[in-house]
Amino acid sequence: MKKAFISGISSGLGLGLGETLTDAGWDVYGISRRNCPRADITHATCDIRKRETIHPTLTTLMKDLKHVDLVILNAGVLGRIADLSETAVSELQDIFNVNVWAQKSILDWFLHHIHSVGHIILISSGAAVVGNRGWGGYALSKAAGNMLIKLYAHEFPQETGLTALAPGLIDTQMTHYLRTDVDRNKYHAVERIAEAHATGVMLSPRKAAERILTQLTALRECPRGEFVDIRSLDAPHEYAKLMGAQGTTTHRDSPAR
Ligand SMILES: NC(=O)c1ccc[n+]([C@@H]2O[C@H](COP(=O)([O-])OP(=O)(O)OC[C@H]3O[C@@H](n4cnc5c(N)ncnc54)[C@H](OP(=O)(O)O)[C@@H]3O)[C@@H](O)[C@H]2O)c1
After folding, report:
1. 10 Å Cβ neighbour count for 21?
2. Does 160 sit in the ligand 1 pocket, CB within 6 Å?
3. pLDDT digits (tens, 9 = 90+) for 105-137
4. Could you read off the pLDDT of 6-30 as tens digits, one per residue?
5. Does 58 sit in the ligand 1 pocket, CB within 6 Å?
6. Cβ burial 70-91 (10 Å sphere, 16+ → b, else e)
7. Is it true that domain 3-171+204-243 has CATH number 3.30.1330.60?
8. Ligand 1 test: best mutation among 122, 172, 228, most atoms within 8 Å of CB?
């Protein structure tokens, strides 16, 4: 039976991925602060901000495993949408503690405790490459996450695939906050998120999970350690429009990179 580990499995994309893999016959292990609503997923409670608890939790959860086919580093926080100049460094550090340093800790555990790992996917974001006003700590941390994966690609065995993946827009608690609590006049990028929700373009967590899992083979064929936006694989026109609107390019549309 194939085995997967997913962080942040209590809600949103992580739960969608856990449910989809479990329904497809995988053995799924997950962590989060809240419980996982699916009893057939092996779950441990863990607050990954408390870095010292991560290794003992993972050891208890997966102590007998020699091989894990898929590791999805999905747990993440958005932080407050605000100008960087009005954001304290301590607030940025809180975001980095979850989105970067906890991910490093989980990667270290897999590197040292699991004999073979098939593919590691860090859930990144378009925000890692698009510098929209207000996305300060989140954008910085997701960009750092992309580099984390690139650097760990040197340290994991060649057989382990590593990808930082932007999953596209998903209807979760995170985007609910963006649609309902953020000043659209000041932070214009929120408008696109509200529009995607209103027009039905925004996927449910389950559909977003299926979209990602459909692309597993394609992701394995991308260079190890690369940042990939799911839209560049299955919706290239939408992706080109998005990047064109942001004045941003990546390896998929810029041969210079
Ligand atoms: N939604 C989107 O459109 C979108 C777009 C691009 C990227 N992403 C990324 O997708 C990932 C999932 O986000 P989502 O949209 O599904 O949001 P979500 O519903 O808020 O889910 C976040 C998950 O992360 C877990 N988590 C947060 N802080 C944690 C902590 N300290 N310790 C352990 N687990 C923690 C949460 O579990 P607990 O609260 O139970 O701990 C929850 O299961 C994130 O990395 C996000 O940056 C989302």
Report:
1. 22
2. no
3. 999 999 999 999 999 999 999 999 999 999 999
4. 999 999 999 999 999 999 999 999 9
5. no
6. bbbbbbbbbbbbbeeeebeeee
7. no
8. 172
